Each structure stands twice: as structure tokens, then as C-alpha cells.
Amino acid sequence: MYPKHGYAKSVQTVQYLQKICKLVTNTYAVHLVTKILDNASKDQLSEFISSLYGHVAPLLRRMVGSLVTEHAYNVGNASQKQTLLMELYSPELPLFKDLVSMKEIRLVDVISQLQLQRSSVVRHMSSVLQPILEKGILDHSIIHRTLMEYLTVADQSSAADVIQQLSGPLLVWMIHARDGSRVGMLCIKHGSAKEEKCDKIARDRFGSMVLVSILSTVDDTKLLSKFVHPALEGILKELVLDQNGRHSLLQLLHPNCSRYLSPDDLTSLSLSIPSLNTKQKESSEVNEASDEEKRDNGEILVEANTGKSAGKNSDINEVAKKDPLTRRRELLISSGLAEKLIHVCSEMAANLLRSKFGKEVIYEERCKLCCPLTAVDKVVVPNL
Predict the structure, then answer these.
(1) Average pLDDT of the chain?
(2) Burial status of residue 210 (CB atoms within 10 A of its CB: 0-12, 13-18, 19 or more)
(3) Is the pLDDT of residue 193 over 80?
(4) Taking a C-beta distance cutoff of 8 angstroms, is the pair 237, 346 a contact?
(5) Which of 15, 16, 200, 369 has the most Cβ atoms closer than 10 angstroms to its Cβ?
């Protein structure tokens, strides 16, 4: 009741607010601290976040402390979020916080602006992230953001180690958030086939995009047919009507279509890790200088043109080796998914036509499966 009744007057009488870090590691006091943050004024919030400086990394290694740090990160403004992140990037950055733009800025830009040693930054971030990965504390957005930035600057060996650690059960804890789902997509693109798993993520806002990435990049279609397709077929009637669930089906019917995927979704699908993107390295040797400049010499995440539809977003599938048409044919036809989808759409036609999202699925199902109009669709879908 303390935070609600007499909160403002009580907080003003606290003489040692900067020692509040002692409370954030207490299992019971953590609830009081989060409630204080929810009701704090701008000045009080700023003072509290200032008290976290120098303690962010140690707090994130503890289950209770990470809850408060994440809460402070979420309620803070862009400047405060960036300051908390800077401490995780390098021990030197808090010393230059007045020199670094307080707007949201990428780590590669900070390194360039302050002329920091990339290897030193990678070593520090590795020392921060490794204990967190070992303990499995991965359901916080501040950690997701740190991982995204780490992968943009890490060398091939360091990036591969993190991808290997994240791929598997740990991934499920991350895909509920925007940056977490993007890290998940990078794990799908650059991890081995044995590491990729699907666990009821089809209807999650960001998890569905991880599943879309799996269907777009994994070359082992037999593995997908064995593990992913049974999960989809079991909830096919729900997926065709679900706002997020329909994404995996539409990706197979009409890949990378800007009508169904937002620019942000297409950008997420096009992300890749420069140090692990071997195809990009090989192509950069033969591309013209202008093309190399557009890729920014591989120092930042590669983004495809989000305004184009299937067939033009080549960067989205650049990690995959199998021909996209062959993959679609195997995932739709050889697996039997197309036949089951046709049956479901025929059975639920009336409901789908009245549904805001279902009508998109039945439209693509009719155009791509029942009466393919384009030469590409006729190649993918033979006579059923």
C-alpha cells in the first residue's frame, strides 16, 4: 500500500535513494521497487536509474536483479535506455556519455564515433553476456538489444559461439519481443539444422516471424516436414483465422509479400550476421565498389529492400542454398500440407470469407493451389 498512499511525500523523505540497489536483489523488496518505478516522477526515475550506473551488468546476472533492471529499462526514456546499454557495451563508454548522442544509436556507430577498439568491445560484451547465457536469463528486452548489437560487431568465432548457445530451448524465451525475435531469426539463418526447433510459436506476434524465417531459410525440408508441419496441421483451422498464425501459411503461398508482411517484418527477415554471412563475403569480391559501399563493407546488419515482394528480396533467402521454388514445392506438395490446406479452406470457406485475416489465406490458396495463374506457381504446384 505504501506506493499508493502518501507516495510522493514518503519518497521525498528517503535520504539514501542512491543505495536502493541493495533492495533490487531482495526477492521481496523487488516488488516494492518496481511499484515505486511505476509511480515515480521524471526526476525520481532519473535519480533511480543513475543509481544503477556501474551495477547494470552484475544485476542482469541475477534473476531478481534482472527484473528490476528490465523494468527500469522499459519505463525509461530513449536517453536513459541508451545509457544503460552503454555500460554493457564497454567500461569506457560511461566516461564518454556526454560525447555520445543520447538518441538510439547503433554500437557500430559508437565505435566509429569514439574510435574504440572493436576487439576490446567484443571481449567486454562477451564477459557480460556469457554468465547471462549460462544462467538462461534471456526473457528481457535489454538483453535482446545487447545481443543484437553484439552480433553486429562480433568476429566469426564469437558470433558462432553465441548462435550455438542460443539455438534450441533458450530461443523460446526470446521470441516474444521484437529484438528477441530478430535474434531468433539470425539463429535460424546461421545455426545448423539440428539446432532449429519449433514449439507452438505460430500464433505469437513475434514468434510467428521466427517460424516464417524457418520456412524461408531451412534447406532440410524433411526435417521441417517431420517436426514443424505436424504442429501446423494440428492447428490449421485456427491458423487460417489468426492474425499472426496466418503468416506461416501465407509465406509458403506468397513469399515475402508486402501485402501481408509489414516493412519492419521484411527488414527482420533480411537481417544477417556479417561475420557469418559467407555468401555476402564471396559476392563482395566480385561486386563493384558501389555495391560494396551499399553493403557498408559488411560492418552493419544487411537489410533488404522492404518494399519489394517475393522474387525481389533476394537478401531474405541469401543464407539458404536450396532453390526457393524447390523448397516451396517440397514444403507444400511433397509434405501433403497443400492438400490439407485446400480441405480446410473448402470446409471453412464461409467463415474465411467473412474473416478479416481468413480471406487473405483463402484468396492465396485459390490463386496458388487450386488454379495457379503464373508460370512460377505452376512450377511449384503441379496438378493436385
Answers:
(1) 78
(2) buried
(3) no
(4) no
(5) 369
Asked whether 342 and 365 are in contact (CB, 8 A), the reply is yes
Whole-angstrom Cα distance, residue 158 to residue 57?
19
Contacts of 119 (CB under 8 A, 6+ apart): 155
Judge contact between 245 and 203, C-beta under 8 A: yes
145 membership: H or E segment, kind and range = helix 141-153
- Of 99, 51, 86, the C-alpha closest to 72 is 51
Residue 195 DSSP symbol: G
Read off the C-alpha cell for 342. Answer: 485446400
**Helix, strand, coil % in the chain, rounded to nearest 5:** 65, 0, 35
pLDDT of res. 290: 45
Which contiguous run of DSSP H or E holds residue 68?
A: helix 63-75
Q: Determine the number of helices (DSSP H) and then strands (DSSP E) in the chain.
A: 23, 0
Mean pLDDT of 156-179: 84
Q: Choose among 150, 132, 152, 128: nearest CA to 140.
A: 132
Asked whether 185 and 271 are in contact (CB, 8 A), the reply is: yes
Specify the DSSP element, H or E, that contains 113. Answer: helix 107-114
Residues making up the chain, counted from first to last: 384
To 5 degrees, how large is the angle CA 358–CA 209–CA 131? 150
First-to-last C-alpha distance (Å) of the chain: 66
